[in-house]
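Forum > Structural Biology > Help requests

Title: Can anyone predict the 3D structure of Transcriptional regulator?

Hi all, first post here. I have the sequence for Transcriptional regulator but no way to get a structure on my laptop. I'd be grateful if someone could post the structure tokens.
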Amino acid sequence: MRLLEAVGSHADGAPAKQLAREAGMPLPTAYHLLRTLTYEGYLRREQGLFVLGDAVGRLARGEALQNRRSKIENSLAHWRDTIGVPVYFAVYRDGEIELVSVSDTPAAPAVDEWADFRETGHAHAIGQCLLSQLDERDRRDHLDRHPVQPITPYTVRDGRTLLARLRTTERTGPVIERQEYALGTVCAAIPISAGSAVATMAISVPSHQEQRLLPAVDRLRREVGQLFNSLAFSISI
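Reply #1:
Sure, ran it for you. Structure tokens for Transcriptional regulator below:
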């Protein structure tokens, strides 16, 4: 890493002897590591000088990805503590529902994923909210691959009924689900609009505390709006 940093400090590259001196290591050790880094694509040798290679870009992209994940996780934790409910973030990517992150506490635990979220999108608020943002063709394609099936006595019973419900879902409003995925739990999800991405934030509360659900999701909407106005919040994760 010290060698990479040394190379990175020279826009036009530097020779091995200079890099070894700047990295504070014996020249034979530096030569060995420089050869290895070059072989792995992290460096290139051009006319006796070492410059950064293409593989370094993957490190930078990985760091950016970690930074975005940390920003999302920190935001979820903030909303969890502010609102007092578990908070979920999910996206629809490559034809599948992906639960990216969940923030909860022992006092306000998240719903157990006892049935795969990807296969049961028809039954939970997260999936219904994501599906409501798709066009009709993509919805049908998803349901062809993950057919509607009962999860609890309250789950929507067939694909036709679900599609009719999704067509009437308000584009920017919350999607409410009552014990369709997990008995004893009610959930609400809000659509997140950021370019062409399809994403959602959601919360859940025990069914005997249902009166908390709508005030909590309204507050989440306000909090999310403030974040988008104040931060470069990326959901391309």
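The chain has eight helices and seven strands. The mean pLDDT is 87.
Shout if anything looks off.
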